[in-house]
Amino acid sequence: MPDFGEVGCAFVLAKPGVTLDPAVLLQALKAQLANFKIPKQCVVLAELPRNAMGKVQKNVLREMASA
Predict the structure, then answer these.
(1) Are 18 and 50 in contact (CB under 8 A)?
(2) Which residues share a beta bridge with 19?
(3) How many degrees, rounded to 5, is the angle at CA 41 between CA 37 and CA 33?
């Protein structure tokens, strides 16, 4: 199965005019979730990458997470 070995990554959308710190977000999650549910990485985006049909381009997100 190709899913084995993948790790979780959170893509967070910031509201306009708000700056978010990924480290602070992960620290807040650690206080509320079990350790195995905490994503290994957090990326703050202004908007999700979408194709012409308006669907989220998951392959682009995967590339961003692996880089």
Answers:
(1) no
(2) none
(3) 25
CATH number at 41 reads 3.30.300.30
Q: Is residue 14 part of a domain?
A: yes
Structure token pair of residue 4: 């084995």
Contact 26, 47 (CB under 8 A): no
Q: pTM for the whole thing?
A: 0.76
Distance CA 42, CA 5 (A): 18
Q: What percentage of the chain has pLDDT greater than the value 90?
A: 66
Q: Is residue 2 part of a domain?
A: no
pLDDT at 38: 92
Whether residue 3 is contained in a domain is answered as no
What confidence tens digit (pLDDT) does each residue in 20-41 have?
999 999 999 999 999 989 999 9
